[in-house]
Write a structure and sequence with these properties.
With about 450 residues, the chain is α/β, with parallel strands linked by helices. It has two domains: about 160 residues, Rossmann fold; about 270 residues, Aldolase class I (TIM Barrel, Alpha-Beta Barrel). The protein is built from 19 helices and 15 strands. Strand 6 and strand 7 form a beta hairpin. The longest helix is centred in the C-terminal third of the chain and has 16 residues.
């Protein structure tokens, strides 16, 4: 290998997207974008290719176009099967080394590192470990023992200790958006997306956040960018990509720090002056939170109502929020003129006719018009998924059900087919929730033969 080639090592990142899409396009990922910026600072050439499932033809085209020397695979839990097959092709057909990163390798590291063709695995937040590892590969140094890296060697598996999370988020470069062809994303949506924080203060039973918390031995893993750093990135993106009409903050901790939110509200309107949306847990909403959001330009909040059953929220989802907090949080946001878009889960463990009616009644009391029914899917490694498997409720249906909006649970009170029906009819049921006809239909659903 020539010296020039060593200094400009080519890295290809494979990103798995919705397999129901006809034409896969890269989805903006803050973490992948930051990784690409870090790599470019160290004189690597980084590119991102989206695959909507196992796509050997597109993979071959990507290999020919990018001529990578190392391949990184971002592995979502819900695309693990497609990723396994793709990794095999990269390793055996193209004879290239592969490292895996993302949610699946972090939640199931022993399984991920054992995939044929995988040379290395990055645990948790992968930007720093990946750059350190690739620098060692380029320099032909021994990478054994690097923090945050598991390595398959001739002598066996070497597990590096977990790397401490990055606490100073301002020290990270802005994400490289060109690798996602970001101009096309803005042209299609009119929106630019940002992360203000990393981590989450909650331990929801259906979520993988507690795996990350346990990995790093942190009681609260929320870290936040300074307001100035965030506003500088927003201004840079607006200047570089024509057509940005609104901003979206898609981390789950955006509004949970009132002191930070006060500073943001005071500076955002004069610096950016574009409407924005964000995610806000309803238990975090107080009068001041709602007023700060509205005064700074927030006209939409995404949130989760979850289930109307307090038992399911407490024991299955472990979100510990009362009906009063949910209803009150929605009222405060609505009074400030903020539109609410809420996820409502259907088919959670222990769902019954009574719990589903509780959900209908609670959602009606919130007066939220924009409801998104979400069919629960048991993510491997989460507490709620373990509960489902211990009870024998998980059918043999695979991850394709998630992408097609179908349940994989067959509970004694509610088979998958009935869960699918409930999710489809939830919006119409909310419009006429008190009628005898709807109760009769629900009774027929919950008394249907349990053959799935």
């Amino acid at each position: 290998m020539h010296i020039a080639e060593i200094n400009t090592m080519r890295v290809l990142i494979l990103q798995f997207t919705d397999p129901t899409q006809d034409t896969p396009t890269p989805l903006f990922s803050h973490n992948i974008g930051v990784l690409c910026s870090c790599l470019k600072e160290r004189k690597f050439t980084a590119s991102v290719v989206a695959l909507n499932g196992y796509q050997p033809g597109k993979l071959r085209a990507a290999m020919i176009e990018n001529r990578p020397q190392y391949v990184l695979v971002d592995m979502p839990i819900l695309s693990a099967t497609a990723a396994r097959r793709t990794i095999a092709d990269v390793a055996w057909q193209f004879a290239l080394p592969v490292a895996v990163m993302g949610h699946y390798p972090t939640c199931q590291p022993s399984r991920a590192i054992s995939i044929p063709g995988v040379s290395a695995l990055f645990l948790g937040e992968y930007e720093r470990p990946a750059v350190d590892f690739l620098q060692d590969v380029r320099s032909q140094f021994d990478s054994s023992g690097l923090q945050g890296v598991w390595l398959n060697t001739a002598e066996g598996l070497v597990k590096g200790a977990p790397r401490p999370v990055e606490t100073n988020l301002d020290s990270l470069p802005f994400p490289d958006r060109d690798v996602f062809d970001y101009g096309k994303i803005v042209a299609a949506t009119g929106e630019a997306a940002f992360k203000a924080a990393r981590g989450c203060a909650r331990w929801c039973g259906q979520c993988i956040n507690d795996i990350y918390v346990d990995l790093h031995q942190e009681t609260n893993n929320v870290r936040r960018r300074s307001v100035g750093n965030l506003l500088a990135e927003i201004s840079d993106v607006i200047a570089r990509y024509e057509g940005v009409k609104r901003i979206r903050f898609y981390d789950h901790a955006f509004a949970c720090d009132l002191a930070w939110l006060r500073e943001f509200a005071a500076r955002y309107r004069s610096s950016v002056s574009l409407p924005y949306s964000c995610y806000v847990p309803l238990e975090d909403v107080c009068a001041e939170t709602a007023e700060l959001l509205a005064s700074s330009g927030c006209n939409r909040v995404d949130t989760m109502i979850g289930s109307g059953s307090r038992f399911i929220r407490d024991e299955v989802q472990t979100i510990h929020v009362s009906n009063e907090q949910i209803i009150g949080g929605c009222a405060l946001l609505r009074q400030c003129g903020i539109d609410i878009f809420a996820d409502v889960y259907v088919g959670l463990p222990y769902e019954t006719q009574i719990t589903f009616e509780d959900t209908i009644n609670l959602v009606a009391k919130t007066q939220v018009r924009n409801i998104r029914p979400v069919i629960y899917y048991p993510l491997t490694g989460t507490r709620a998924a373990d509960m489902c498997r211990e009870n024998g409720w998980v059918s043999g249906r695979g991850e394709e059900c998630y992408w097609r909006g179908r349940s994989v649970l067959d509970m004694p009170s509610l088979p998958a087919r009935s869960i699918n029906d409930l999710a489809q009819k939830l919006p119409s049921m909310l419009k006429r929730r008190r009628g005898l006809r709807i109760r009769q239909w629900l009774s027929s659903v919950f008394s249907a033969p349990k053959n799935g």
